[in-house]
Amino acid sequence: MKLYSFFRSGTSHRLRIALNLKGLSHEQVAVDLRREDHLAEAFKAVNPQQFVPVLESDGRLMTQSPAIIEWLEERYPHPPLLPSGADERAQVRALAAIVGCDIHPVNNRRILEALRHRFGADEAVVNDWCSTWISAGFNAIEAFLAADTRRGDFCFNGSPTLADVYLVPQVESARRFNVDITRWPHIQAVDVACGRLEAFRKAAPSSQPDAS
After folding, report:
1. How many Å apart are CA 91 and CA 89, to the nearest integer?
2. Terminus of the chain with fewer CB atoms < 10 Å: N or C?
């Protein structure tokens, strides 16, 4: 497998975690968003949408991290990232969707670049923008985690699931935008528990070969 990614990209981060949890080795191809490598014609041939990550497997190029992670779950079902019951899978997918649908899309790089360059936002405004949507999502996730009395160290029961795969990169992003994570003790505890696992540590932005 070949993974086109950027060390600081939250979607690349979540895909690295999923690959590591599945025990799947992969070659990394750095796409430096700071140099706008993703806008070059060479990368457009890889992904016409010009986003990372892209996963190449057996000559097939796959885009969009939610679709890729679902493909991984179907193709490599063990260890599972989703519980066995339909109700439980819905619960885990809902937690992941708070990040994947409600927080990350409004805080990703192209949105922030538009705020800076089209609307004249300075870094204080950008940080405030990010904090607003991270806080709204994290308030909801924290409430769901607090209400689940059967939960173990992770977002669901006693092992990492899709919800943790999505949450940990968003916590990393929150810290980058100076959001105080201690406001959400359950989220903070999940992040600490995940940080004990090699799959998460190896996927961290600071551990990537293109990190700088």
Report:
1. 5
2. C
Residue 209 DSSP class: T
**According to the model, what pLDDT value does residue 121 have?**
97
Q: Are strands 27-30 and 2-5 parallel, antiparallel or unpaired?
A: parallel
CA distances 46 to 9, 29, 68, Å, are 17, 12, 15
What is the structure's pLDDT at 6? Answer: 97
In angstroms, the CA 169 to CA 199 distance is 13
Task: Give tens-digit pLDDT for 59-68.
Answer: 999 999 999 9
Q: How far apart are CA 28 and CA 16, in angstroms?
A: 10
- CA dihedral of 55, 58, 61, 62, whole degrees rounded to 10: -60
Q: What is the DSSP letter of 47?
A: -
- Token pair in block for residue 203: 């996927």
pLDDT of residue 212: 77
CA angle 179, 181, 184 (to 5 degrees): 130
Mean pLDDT of the chain, nearest integer: 96
pTM of the entire structure? 0.96
16 touches 197 (CB < 8 A): no
Domains of the chain, each with CATH number or no CATH: 2-79 (3.40.30.10), 86-200 (1.20.1050.10)
Q: Which residue has the tokens 């999923």?
A: 18
Q: What is the token pair recorded at 31?
A: 């796409």
- Report the number of secondary-structure helices (H) and strands (E) in the chain: 10, 4
List the chain residues with pLDDT less than 70: none
